[in-house]
Amino acid sequence: MKVHGRCHCGELRFEGEVDPAQVSICHCRDCQTLTGTAYRVSVPVKAADFHILNGAPRIYVKTAENGNPRAQAFCATCGTPIYASDVAHPAVYNLRVGALAERAELKPVRQIWCRSALSWVQNLSGMEMREKS
Question: Domain residue spans in the chain?
């Protein structure tokens, strides 16, 4: 599936070819902190199928629990997370679904790092809902 993405301010634009059957939710504490919310939704794209069309992301390198460095790419102007990848020679970029125009079509199929999941995320039914705030 062809996807198109951009940061909030539009400085960064990118595209790629992804497999919708690979969309996942990550509940790890790093993803909670880096997104400022309960979890992160990502979809992998092979390096050969990923193209930045405009701008250049800023990179923050974090150390994963297994000790491996991971590049976290984001817009230096608005802060929108764009992807995570291997630092030296990325073969795959994990695109942040929220930055993709096709996000409504990319339903997660798995959850990882569930030991860190916040207790309330599995059941949002019954909560007050509004179309706008």
Answer: 2-122
